[in-house]
Design a protein that fits this description.
This protein is α+β, with helices and mostly antiparallel strands and about 180 residues long. About 25% of the residues lie in helices and about 15% in strands.
Length: about 180
C-alpha cells in the first residue's frame, strides 16, 4: 500500500506517495524527474545508479525508499548545472572521461563522495573507490586524471592520447610540378 515518504534530495525536501519497498532509483527518476542515475544491472553491482547517501556513494537500484527517509541524498543533478558545472564535471569534460555517458553519473558521484571524505586520495584509493563502477567504454584512466585535475594535481596523459594541435601537425609538402 502506498505511503507518503519524505526525502531530502539535493538539499530540497520532497514528499512522494509510493510503496515503501520501491527502489530509490525509481522514485528519483519517475517521481522526482532526476534522470542522471541509470538502471544498469539492477543488482547494485555496476555503479550506474549510484547516488551519495549521507556522504557515501551507494547503489540506488536496490535501496528501498523507506530506508532513506530523512537522510541526505545527492544526485548528479545536485552537484552543478549546465551553466555552473561542479569542478568534477568540468574535469571529466576536459579529460574526455565522458564517452557514451551511461556510467558517468555514477563515476562522478563516487569520485565526489571520495573527495569529500579524503581530499587527497592516492591513485590506488581512487581505483579502489571506483572498482564497483563498470564502464563499457573503458575510460578509467581518464576518470583518474579527472579526479587528479580536480585535486589540482598534474594529470599525465599517455603518449597515445596526446592530441596534436593544428599548428603542431606536419604540414603537407607541396607536390613537385608534373612532368611535361
Amino acid at each position: 500500500m502506498p505511503q507518503e515518504i519524505t526525502l531530502q534530495v539535493n538539499g530540497r525536501i520532497h514528499r512522494v506517495c509510493v510503496e515503501p519497498d520501491t527502489p530509490l532509483l525509481y522514485v528519483l527518476r519517475n517521481d522526482l524527474g532526476l534522470k542522471a542515475a541509470k538502471l544498469g544491472c539492477g543488482q547494485g553491482q555496476c555503479g550506474a545508479c549510484q547516488v551519495i547517501l549521507d556522504g557515501q556513494a551507494v547503489p540506488s537500484c536496490r535501496l528501498p525508499v523507506r530506508s532513506v527517509q530523512g537522510r541526505s541524498i545527492t544526485t548528479l543533478e545536485g552537484l552543478g548545472t549546465a551553466d555552473d558545472l561542479h569542478p568534477l564535471q568540468q574535469a571529466f569534460i576536459e579529460e574526455q572521461a565522458v564517452q557514451c555517458g551511461f556510467c558517468t553519473p555514477g563515476l562522478i558521484v563516487a569520485a565526489k563522495a571520495l573527495l569529500d571524505r579524503n581530499p587527497h586520495p592516492t591513485e590506488g584509493e581512487m581505483r579502489a573507490e571506483l572498482a564497483d563502477n563498470l564502464c563499457r567504454c573503458g575510460v578509467y584512466d581518464r576518470v583518474i586524471r579527472a579526479i587528479k585535475r580536480t585535486m589540482g594535481q598534474a594529470a599525465v596523459r599517455p603518449p597515445y592520447e596526446k592530441q596534436n594541435r593544428p599548428e603542431q601537425l606536419p604540414q603537407p609538402q607541396t607536390a613537385p610540378p608534373p612532368f611535361d
